[in-house]
């Protein structure tokens, strides 16, 4: 529990876990953005310390952060006086068995001073075909992204990445994926770039300051059929807050054409939840409504 932290990057918040005494943190790439970003780390007791993002792999959504401050003078954990941070040990994500119990921690809705990271119990369901993601039925919501997934021995086996269509259908970056790229991530390198998604909404988006708005909609496309209109502000994709195209791209990597997702939009004074059946890329682009 002492190793699970909150991360505040600009106006966004997520989670992470300290994995060595020097203050190295594992999290999700979409939580921290690009390398070299200054951020705040929120300790379980609500104390803020400074940190900086290191490397990321946008393709699988892994990222690292380093705490740049020393432990607070009033810190009580063992080794604090010598400048050491509490940390969790990495486990073996390759040996997971379907149905195995796992534990998720994080900061749903963002860190709160009067609430430690809630613990949620679930089961391991599957690896993806490339073994760069694993799926569980642990209940997760926005703010949990980047938080740790533990086995029952208290070892970190994954990092929360993408929240699925249902709260109990979520994707995590396996611990092994971090181990394989440890040196590059710790040096601040961008290991993998987001590849073009094979799915499409049939819309174009325009980014503002902490907002993202629908600029055009393809006639007869997924967004059009779902009732999404030009000028709608996109608030959430499957209950996870979004404000950039990159955040949406990361979420979509978990889905395939014909999957149904929920998009929350703001239209004037109304807030709507619309179900979108994703389309596939390729072929001629339909006429767009401008």
Automatic annotation (TrEMBL):
Pfam families: PDZ_2, Trypsin_2. Residues 189-269 form the PDZ domain. It comes from the Bacteria. InterPro entries: PDZ, PDZ_sf, Peptidase_S1_PA, Peptidase_S1_PA_chymotrypsin, Peptidase_S1C. GO terms for molecular function: serine-type endopeptidase activity. Keywords: Hydrolase, Protease. This is Serine protease, DegP/HtrA, do-like. It comes from Fimbriiglobus ruber.
């Amino acid at each position: 529990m002492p190793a699970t932290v909150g991360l505040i990057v600009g106006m966004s918040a997520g989670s992470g876990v300290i994995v060595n005494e020097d203050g190295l943190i594992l999290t999700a790439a979409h939580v921290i953005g690009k390398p070299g970003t200054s951020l705040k780390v929120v300790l379980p007791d609500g104390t803020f310390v400074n940190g900086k993002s290191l490397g990321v792999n946008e393709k699988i959504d892994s990222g690292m952060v380093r705490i740049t401050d020393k432990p607070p003078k009033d810190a009580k954990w063992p080794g604090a006086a010598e400048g050491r941070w509490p940390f969790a040990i990495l486990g073996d994500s390759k040996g997971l068995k379907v149905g195995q119990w796992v534990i998720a921690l994080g900061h749903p809705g963002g860190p709160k001073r009067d609430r430690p990271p809630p613990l949620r119990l679930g089961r391991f369901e599957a690896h993806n075909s490339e073994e760069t993601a694993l799926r569980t039925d642990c209940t997760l919501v926005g703010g949990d992204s980047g938080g740790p997934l533990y086995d029952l021995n208290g070892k970190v086996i994954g990092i929360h990445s993408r929240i699925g269509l249902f709260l109990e259908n979520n994707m995590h970056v396996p611990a092994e994926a971090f181990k394989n790229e440890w040196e590059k991530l710790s040096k601040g390198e961008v290991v993998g770039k987001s590849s073009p998604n094979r799915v499409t909404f049939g819309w174009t988006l325009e980014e503002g300051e902490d907002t993202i708005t629908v600029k055009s909609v393809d006639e007869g496309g997924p967004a059009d059929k779902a009732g999404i209109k030009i000028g709608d502000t996109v608030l959430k994709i499957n209950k996870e807050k979004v404000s950039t195209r990159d955040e949406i791209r990361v979420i979509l990597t978990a889905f395939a054409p014909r999957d149904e997702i929920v998009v929350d939009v703001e239209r004037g004074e109304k807030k709507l939840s619309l179900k979108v059946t994703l389309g596939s890329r390729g072929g001629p682009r339909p006429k767009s409504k401008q």
